[in-house]
Amino acid sequence: MDARLPDLSRQPKSRAGMIATALVGVALGTACNRAPSAEPPPVQDTLSVYIDGGESGAPPRAPRDGASATDPAKSPEHLPRTLAFEMAGVARADAKQAEAARQAAVVEAFAQALIEARRLRRQPTADFTARLGPRLTVIHRSLGDGCEIEVSLTHRGEEIRFEVKRGVLQHEPRNPDSLARLFDETNGEFALLETRWLPSGDECIARVACFRPAGMGTLAPETIAGHPDDEPPIEP
Fold first, then answer.
1. Fewest 10 Å CB contacts: which of 12, 173, 211, 224?
2. How do 46-48 and 128-131 pair as beta strands?
3. Closest to 106 (Cα-Cα) out of 143, 64, 153
4. pLDDT digit string (tens) for 143-180?
């Protein structure tokens, strides 16, 4: 008697196959429902995001208040995410101002990523105050030849403020851990990818990525750019 292989085409679909088929359908439906745009579509690569800046020049992540030490996979940065876009910030400085320039570049890149996220959501991209939850606020003010960005972070009752005007940090550099906490407050929607100096040694570049939960066709409602507490800039 000849051994016959089972006809796999007649077998019930696996659970993984059904899920994969459903996800493809969701992705196609989302793409078809989008309004036409001259802009290229955002990258749709699904990533499992956990970025430790220790090897890229970005500050390592600071532990979040109340984070699970026994199960770090439950933290927001470990959830599956889809890369939406990346933005860069640049700051100039000499060797004596290296840390100030690095922090200015990071704030610039973060602001550019926030502005792009707001543009995609048809929100104002200049002269705004975005309250990104109870502990993080970003203020943008247009200037004649540039802009002023103010980022206010509250940690354990203490307010930490970064102020960048025309690409220059307006105060002494803050503790690098504060930058890590800044991105932690975005619940994994924004991440600092790297900071590096150009070969000339007088310009620092920072790269910030904007992510959204995997499978979402547009920026998720919990994305910080979509926070309802949005208003004109607070006057200094």
1. 12
2. unpaired
3. 153
4. 988 999 999 999 989 999 999 999 999 999 999 899 99
Instruction: Please give the C-alpha separations between residue 49 and each of 77, 156, 191, 197, 233, in angstroms, as whole numbers.
Output: 6, 26, 9, 25, 32
pTM of the predicted model as reported, rounded to 2 decimal places: 0.61
Cα–Cα distance list, 48 to 19, 99, 100, 213, 223 (Å):
18, 30, 31, 10, 17
Residue carrying the six token digits 């459903």: 22
17 has pLDDT over 50:
no
- How many C-beta neighbours within 10 Å does residue 10 have? 6
Burial class (CB in 10 A: 0-12, 13-18, 19+), 109: buried
Q: Determine the Cα–Cα distance for residues 236 and 226; give it in Å rounded to an integer.
A: 24
Q: Which of 220, 223, 195 is nearest to 208 (CA)?
A: 195
Q: Are 21 and 28 in contact (CB under 8 A)?
A: no
Here the tokens at position 176 are 């690098």
Unique residue bearing structure tokens 């550099």: 173
Whole-number Å distance between alpha carbons of 86 and 112: 9
